[in-house]
Amino acid sequence: MQGGPTQNTYDFNDCINAKLKYFGGSPKTILCDNLKTAVSRPNRYEPVFTELCYQLGDHYRTCFSAARPYKPRDKAMVERCVQIAYNHIYAPMRHDTCFSIEELNAAILEKLKMLNAKKYKGSPYSRKELYQEREEPYMTELPVESFKLKKVVLATVQRNYHIQLSENHQAYNRINHHLCRYYSVPYAYAGKKVKVLYDQQMIEVYCEGERIALHQRNNISKAYHTIQDHMLSNHRHALQVRGWNKDDLLKQASNMGPHVLQAAEHILASSFYPEQNYKSCYGLIMLRNKYDQSRINNACKRALQGTRIRYGTICDILQKGLDQQTDLFTTATPLPDHENIRGPLQYQ
Length: 348
Prior knowledge:
Layout (H helix, E strand, L loop, with lengths): L8 H15 L5 E4 L6 E3 L6 E2 L1 H10 L2 E4 L9 H15 L10 H17 L9 H8 L16 E6 L5 E4 L5 H5 L5 E4 L8 E6 L3 E6 L2 E7 L7 E2 L7 H10 L3 H9 L3 H11 L5 H13 L6 H11 L7 H9 L7 H4 L18
Parallel strand pairs: 1-4, 7-11
Antiparallel strand pairs: 2-3, 5-8, 6-7, 8-9, 9-10
């Protein structure tokens, strides 16, 4: 097992990955010392491990055990192996010079192969042969990919059966809602407390140890990510019967004008319920039954100058006739002359 430069979480994770890859399988349990990276609360009978260890155990289908605190005998075999490693690996390399960690690890690996292939004194077996005969058959096959450390947050499933996720979803994002992303879970879990594990690629949602949702993670502008199987049956039925889907709605909006299309895209990516996004966009398109399409396009153009583009805002613009006051958003107010205002000559 190659050591990391520190005992922090990332180096410990890399060490476990390297160790299991070297053995070519996963054991029933991994016995470790009471280092803080692995054990959050030492106990002789029931130690509490860190979240990293539980994630590693789930990934490799194993579990962690800890040596009893202040009991050197629990680690006697390990300490003896450390001494053997010093005698057969470090001592022969004491005069060697390596210019990088990678070069040093490669040299150590060659010495380790020689040690494991060496016959025991008075025995026909080597360490490698004994391992292959007595231990390897009981090892669990490794997953295709090595474990990647995931971040963990606790969340409450909202009434719209979505959980909120962002890198900093505390007070900062109560103000900057557009930075949040929402991911669906089956509607029956609304109001439940769940554990969310995520990295740059995937998001997993667990409730009472059972994975209830899996999403691909992305950072596109779309705020809500909804799997239709998670929705209430009447919500799915409404979307199917009314023909509300993103492509159809955007196609109808584009036929009404470029600004209507932009407004529809903003509405579909807004932070309302997913089905409400479709309703609002559909309502925007249905304004053509009451207003001329050119007026709707101008109203959307005016609304796009604001920070929140909503169906209600566009309705207000049309009802008040503000879409016909084109001078308000096409004519710029000139700056007054003043002796303190720098002219172009100041920048030559």
